[in-house]
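// run 5 | inverse folding | seed 20
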């Protein structure tokens, strides 16, 4: 999770519960593709790096692989489901031995890492033949309600989008969100607002209510780390 010059760690720590309630998981077809491509099965080990509250980690458990979630924020780690090993640590200092995992997944977090240091650490912990999978959700704003959410976010956000354009295989899915204000609060660019600006943003999102948002999960796999 957050790290580096654009660190939003305090805002994520404050809004961990909203993040868990409102952020989507990943398209089931995307997870099935990950399991197949990474050969996840009993006896294999997958590291979910920058795991947040374990949104992806919990979806990988059904593969039978051992899932290890590494996340620096205690508030996020506390919400990783029981049964998943959750360790404090960062992408630049992974708390695992050399050549100890068969695959690394990074979901919605790579843009927070120091890329060179993180890649060196991932290479260190990967076994020969291992792979890195980058996973991200993007809103599909061809849907009117999803577009309205995005337009409201654009009007209020405290910083521009930090994530690069997605690439890889694309898998559409839909997520019902009861409170768009709750979802907005889980966005660093809204959670970092203060005072009247923060209240005005949440009021605009509350006016939208809730409903089904359309997403696309992108999966990019890099063999050998």
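// decoded
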């Amino acid at each position: 999770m957050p790290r580096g010059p654009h660190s939003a760690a305090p805002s994520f720590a404050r809004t961990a519960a909203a993040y868990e309630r409102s952020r989507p998981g990943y398209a089931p077809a995307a997870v099935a593709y990950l399991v197949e491509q990474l050969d996840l099965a009993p006896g294999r080990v997958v590291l979910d790096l920058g795991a947040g509250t374990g949104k992806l980690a919990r979806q990988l458990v059904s593969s039978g692989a051992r899932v290890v979630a590494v996340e620096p924020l205690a508030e996020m780690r506390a919400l990783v489901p029981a049964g998943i090993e959750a360790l404090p640590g960062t992408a630049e200092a992974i708390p695992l031995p050399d050549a100890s995992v068969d695959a690394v997944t990074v979901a919605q977090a790579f843009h927070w890492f120091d890329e060179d240091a993180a890649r060196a650490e991932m290479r260190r912990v990967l076994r020969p033949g291992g792979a890195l999978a980058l996973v991200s959700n993007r809103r599909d704003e061809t849907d009117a309600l999803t577009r309205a959410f995005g337009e409201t976010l654009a009007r209020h956000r405290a910083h521009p989008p930090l994530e690069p354009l997605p690439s890889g295989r694309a898998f559409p899915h839909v997520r019902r969100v009861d409170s768009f204000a709750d979802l907005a609060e889980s966005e660093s660019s809204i959670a970092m607002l203060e005072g009247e600006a923060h209240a005005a943003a949440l009021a605009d999102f509350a006016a939208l209510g809730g409903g089904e948002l359309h997403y696309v999960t992108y999966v990019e796999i890099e063999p050998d780390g």
